[in-house]
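Data availability excerpt. The first of two example chains:
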Amino acid sequence: MKRIVLVILASAASTVGSPLAHTQTQPPTTFAIGGGELIAAENGSVSVPAVRSDTASNSVALTLRYVRFKSNAAKPGPPIVFLAGGPGDAATRAFHGMPRRVLESLTAISDVIAFDQRGTGTSEPSRVTCPPLAAGPVVKLDSPLDPAELGAAMRRQLAACLTEIDAAPFTTKESADDLRALAAALEAKQIFLLAGSYGTHLAMAAARQHPETIAGMALLGVEGPDDTLKLPSRVDGVLAEIDRAHPGVRLKVSTLADRWRRAPWTKTLPNGQNVTVGAWDLQRRVAEALSTTRDITAMIAALDPMMAGDYSDLVRWTIPFRSARPMNLMHIATDCASFASVSRIATVRAESGAAILGAAINFPLPDICDTPGLPRLPDAFRAPLVANVPALLIAGTFDGRTPPPNVTDAAKGLAKAQTLFIPRASHGLFQEPAAMSAVVDFFTRLK
């Protein structure tokens, strides 16, 4: 492994024995949830090899940390382990915004574990950020955004980072093995998984690798084994759903994109800097909005002024998007390790030309994954999951990040699957009462 990772982890190396080595839970403490309210909790950690298949790396341990919220049930079910999305988001960070009523509905069933995956939050390795190579814009501001130019700049930044930080530990396969180690640390024969977005991708990998450990999984916003690259046709389908509720959205996006393909628009800022926007700026701006209901609403509100010739919204968006910024190595490496099957890549490329948002929905993938030094999992990892693990799969019809057909695909291989489609819900399904009510009912029945 590269020098910097070894320095970070050297202090933990003595804790490694078996891949399931773990430390004891620490004394009780308090944890700030939504609104800053302090509630009782326990901190814990588990030590795991950085790369299990690498003999040299097995001499180095990662300390993965979690917060445990104890159940008040007379007979608690298996611990409910929360898996955040991203990849790169931290469970403990998400729980700082957790409403008390939601947490209490879960602790009425089982202990709840906010588990920070490797390279996230409080877990190691702690250095996973690639600093920008220079300050300011990394691509020209006075011409339409060129994704090839921006992608090349991002690959240079990533390549420089990979000379100092080893990306090998950052794969979903390793993280799935971490969940088995976590179960042992919790002294639990089985665990429940509550996952969102990328966390569902990890949960499904765990169900494949360690089905005996998973008592059930609630998956909100499903990313299946071969869903890392989004299908443009499915995102078009989400835009069609949004258009049914807000007529004219698709036509406005298409009209504006065609307008800027013919004649990009330039605005001169007060400091004299020219900023030019084009079709790709708009496509990426809309793609990024297809996450939360608030972002979708703001995007829709910006379209009418654009149609009338006021492009201020897009100018405000494109300046920071083109600027130098840190890159999360865990995020890039994990996505690139999962990557996509040959057939998936072919379908994405075939659909991108005619799709409303084109290839902008997957940028900077897939091209950035060709950067030397990134891990890549074998093709078998991307095969459809076939398992008997009980599963609840939930989708929002306005979710452009993990479109509803992902749920239909994933359910085919899960003999004990239930599905729920929530009209007009976006990617933020944990904010949807119908979704959380279904989750509580699901775990209650399995308990």
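And the second chain:
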Amino acid sequence: MSNVENKRRRQEDAMVRDVLKSGPHLDRRKFFVSAGAFAAAAAGAGAGTVAAPRPAMAEMPRVLRKPDDRLLNIGATVRSGNYWDFSTWITPVEEFYVRNHYPTPTAESRPELARENWKMRIHGDSVINPIEITYEDLLKMPARSIIANMQCHGNARNLFWEVQGYSSEQVTGGSWVMGAIGNAEWRYVPISHILDKVGLRDDALTAVFWSGVDGADMGRPMPVSELLARGDDIGICFQMNGNELLADHGAPVRLVVPGWGGTASIKWLTEMRITNKRVWSRLNTRGEVYIGDAYARPEFSMDDEFIDVSADDIRGPMVTWMPPQSTLTVPLVLENTPSMPANYPLERGELPTLEAGLQTMRGYAWGPQYGVRDVDYRIDGGSWQPARILAPNLGRYTWVRFEFPWDASAGEHVIETRTTDNSGTSQPAEVPPNLLGMANASIPRFRIRVV
């Protein structure tokens, strides 16, 4: 084992001990050493030569700021994670998926996003003492850290096409495959502190979190009851993995709502408005909702507030908690997916290959609402077997890594994985289709060719 690998394992072991001792909430910046640092160290351990610097080139405007070398390009403003390369419990920012609806706004293009200029209004008919805070104000408030998954609602959408056999007309959306998820340390001011500071009237019903800098329709309502129930876990976030937020992840400030799909965690946050009405906007009507025969249309009234949408746009319930899910660190075979990601490691219909013999299969499992209790696997339709869950397993909000041995014989095989959370809910064989391909919790099937 190399010195670099020894160092990586020692640091990871120390991280596990630290987390198990401290629990999911941390009060420190240091926690994670990026995988990129290990790659750099490995490179430095080689021949010892330094490449000559390349001539400077004029930078072209970029839709996203992060490079694609460790991400999956699935569209102009969206990048999934290369989950088949995942190995760490905390996801490096370089490998963390990006879901934008518009090009990433930066302080250069939108000066109000500069930390010295940023402001956030907390106001509304149901707020007693409205305030406006600056970035410096935010940093002076009591802060805490939490380790939690962030996941796009469309993660695992491809299972509708590849496993359940639905068409691109029945299920629409981008090809996230299984990588639109990451596990990070988020540092934030708890929303309980903000609510205590401004005070709520008894009629407070809905909080509307708004950006407005990346797109005029970028905001989403949330029940005030959810903020009150999880006031210490939901918060106004200013750091990710111990560093200031990057532009692609909402710099300078975003909302973080652990356990709910990523759309709830509004990026480039500038406003929180609390009202006594139900509120409907694009992100809980035309997008990020379940639309299908199995999903009832939500109740509404013409007295509700409508932000650039109408009652006709209300077709299904808003996606909130993400379900138990799992994946192997193996590329999913894409045969029926409408649009292939630009830099996917397999061609359409191609199977990943593995050498025959004893293999250790690895993966990730998560159950954001209750935490992971068990992970099982089966091969070629055989009986379900328990996988070994690796430490740490902190329960709610985070994921676990798992592994199991496989004596792989030559030929084509199918491996399935299944998460059961601490409420007893397991991934089902199938889930009802929904038009936007939200939150597919069905058992994934990984086809592999052994040679």
